[in-house]
Queue: 3 jobs
Job 1
Amino acid sequence: MLTDFDAALAAGTVRYIDDRCLDDFVDAVLALRPGNDVSGLKLVYTPLNGSGLECVRKLLAKMGVKRLTVVPAQEKPDGHFPTCPYPNPEIREAMEEGLRLCDAVKPDLLLGTDPDCDRMGAAVPDGEGSYRLLSGNEMGVLLLDYLCRTRISRSTMPENPVAVTTIVSTDMAAAVAAEYGVELRRTLTGFKYIGEQIGLLEAEGHKERYIFGFEESYGYLSGAHVRDKDAVNAVMLACECAAWYAGRGMTLLDAMNALYEKFGFYRNGLVSIAFEGQNGMKAMEEVMTSLRADPPAEVAGLAVTGRMDYLRDNTGLIPSDVLELHLAGGAKLIVRPSGTEPKLKLYLSVKGGSEEEAGRLLNALTAGANALVNKRSRS
């Protein structure tokens, strides 16, 4: 007896998607290649027991990567995620299997994609025999700089190029974009807003102006083939970027340090403060009300030099319950309530003249921001 599904298959109203769809997607990503040779790269890759394996493996084969090691325990799809209870490449624990394999394989690059393959994490040699994870902001800045310098050198940079990031991503992106004459647009948190900017450029008949978008939470996109972050695209860019620097005797960590030396030592942090109990949401809302009604004059000893209220001010974005405090020395504190739970997210940004100074500033701002919220929650 035919089931409804069998009948739908027979009628052609439902059909299986064959490998041609996968090939077409990978080819759409490959069409965005800046074009640097990656055949000499040695890679370790983990799909974190998710969906990325087929796409990424097919992509790397078409790019000419010959030395690829997939993390065995995380290769096959498994919705129970036995090796990492929280399969998020932002979290070090999720990347531990890959990091251990790196100690044996010694690759140029460790790449990990999350279960639905839209975010990518990476680790690179640290110069001391181990590997260092790059933050989402660091990878975003590296890829933005690489794309700009490569497209300019190959005369493929469009007129009036546009890059897009979010209000909570690193301010270092603005410095890099300015270096190459790229307009940097900032959106609210969420890659859908970056995709929206692509749509606006497309509606104007100039989607080619969009060259790159990223968010601090490990999402990247260099083309208009999709409207969301794409880890397959990100893997391609990371490989090309690593290979380009390898040809100059540098790792991606060397490259990141060179960018810090050039543009300044930017550091970012994220603190989440939960409000417990049945009145948690109300307590969180009261903190936001207090910060609006009586904004602080300083945070961690840094004077508040300006503020932006994304709910009440004319920001050019849709109103959102977000407060942004600008502090002396180029530091910044953004306070944003979670939309689903009683939790405030504090996004911290500092800039120092050295790595050590930036680290001290970030530690001080972290303590000061915590103290500010705790004080307002008790008042």
Job 2
Amino acid sequence: MTKPHSPSPNRSFTVGTPAPTQRLGLATAVLALALSAGSLCWAGAGAMASDAGGADIPSVATPGLPSFADVAERVTPAVVNVSVKAEGIQPMQWSAHPPRPHDVPMPESFRRFFEHPGHEGPRRTVSQGSGFVLDAEGHIVTNDHVIEGASEITIILNDGTTYPAKVVGRDAKTDLAVLKIDADRPMSYVELGDSREARVGDWVLAVGNPFGLGGSVNAGIISARGRDINSGPYDDYLQIDAPINQGHSGGPLFDINGRVIGVNTAIYSPSGGNVGIGFAIPAETVQRVVADLRENGRVERGWLGVQIQPVTESLAAGLGLEQTGGVLIADVIPGSPASMADLRAGDVILSAAGHSLDGAKGLARAVAETTAGTAMTLRVLRDGQAREVSVRIARMPDDEQVAGLPSEPADAVARPRLGLYLAPLTPELRLEQGLRPDAEGVYVSQVESDSPAARAGIEAGSLISMVGVEPVTTPDQVIAAVLAAADDKVEALILRVEKDGPPLFVAVPLTT
């Protein structure tokens, strides 16, 4: 992303000694003084002023900037601090990639952010983010990455009152989470608006907990819409210039009427500090996801079952296309809705449900928002001929399965546990996590603290491609291998694990 340009010279103000040939009238001098003091006020509205030797100069009548005090007073009680305690996991020591020193900045310019004010002991960390109360019953919205790995979550209200919180549901794909507190009184809350009514240039307020300073209100404008920062398969961010920093994650973005039109989630920061470019999840996305999380604890999405890629100019030329619009199918998953609808690798999907596609993520969003069982009409280009294909969207496979599921009946035979939350490596997950299109294995979405897998050094984001000498591609295969190893009285399970470097074999002790 190109860095912002400096203001052009004809729009800058210089306050200092005038050139010998320049004379300042009284109004001009007052204006210069106001600017030198950093004031945004204009003097003498509608008046005329002059000095003894200068021509009459009309003062400029400019409306004052709006005050946000009334809105801030109304919404601030519903904005909360989210304090998270998490058990730290010692990273796996990959021999080819030594750990990054703490004083070396991460290379990524887009950052999800929340504050780490301190540590409790060698393994427990304390982090802080923001959130907002959504109803009088105490449901709270925040970012999923704020509570990732949490062993204890505390909500701190604007008046300093604290409550323990429980997780109602999480959705890593959109980085949203819903928490619940049980208060002894109705809660102050705010309502979700619709960011589609907001325009580029509209005023917005970011309220949150930057650097632990709760109740901070920052103003800015919407700078752009529909930003894709490659953080997930459904990126559609609002870009804002309201100053947001560490600790703002999960906090609300308000319009001037006090409606929540976004959730502050990321900043563009080559240096790690605020440079005036922030990103918020639009309220309409929040509305859909939060409704699912409150009702089901998870988000159900539609699934097509194709590996897709954008149509570049070179691909368009090779395929004989006149333009680069549409989405190219690179692969079709056997047994998926796409395979049963006779979609093929090499097909170009031009539109879905009558809407032209703005890229690969446009198709991903359209399919994800479609209810399972619904028929969707795709306009497809194959061998130079356009045709319509009807496909019945299915429910996306479960994101997470647990190796050694904990919810066994009390009288069940003790099962071995690794402490791994595993997800099938779907095309959508490859795209979301920036994995190679040909990556194979099972994705580790979460590692339980102080579990055998954590003690062995396995981290979230790893790929498990083999158990022993057998390749694995589904969570069920890993679970079956764990159970078989336990039946054979194997003391440790050997996993081939890959993360940010060459794959390594890791021995994980089997415990019950």
Job 3
Amino acid sequence: MRKKSVCVYCGSRPGAEPAYIANAEAFGNRLAQEGWRLVYGAGDVGLMGAVARSAQAAGGETFGVIPQHLVDWEVGKTDLTSYVVTETMHERKKVMFMNCDAVVVLPGGAGSLDEFFEVLTWRQLGLHAKPIILMDTKGYWAPLTALVDHVIDQGFADQSLRDFIHVVDGPDAAVDVLRG
């Protein structure tokens, strides 16, 4: 049986709240404990580095994908189980998504939002049925979910758009959804 793979989108910075790093580390550890492979952006900084180092420390398998132009900026983590360097950001996102069974979005910036909206749009269009989970550490994603609700309320999307998003408060709840 093939190992479950979970794509984690998250910040290349640690963020303002210590809980962001703590949840990233706890989630990396939980992925390894469950025997699931981490698929992520291959950086060794911020939340990306925290989730990967934690998964590795717990004996987990890691699959990192990074575009060449970010190898230095995000400090490409080359000691992963699998380390892939792509030519473009688009190629990075495609490789990450094609190699996962579910997506979990931890706090992050514009890049994490881009990744989230791309997989949400693909789900809305029926291009996949993979779970999409927002880890809402300390209410980080509350403005985002309010925006999605606003889009629905204003008639630009069906309620199903919101139904595609599982909002959880931490690693344990994310694992519960992933176990499905």
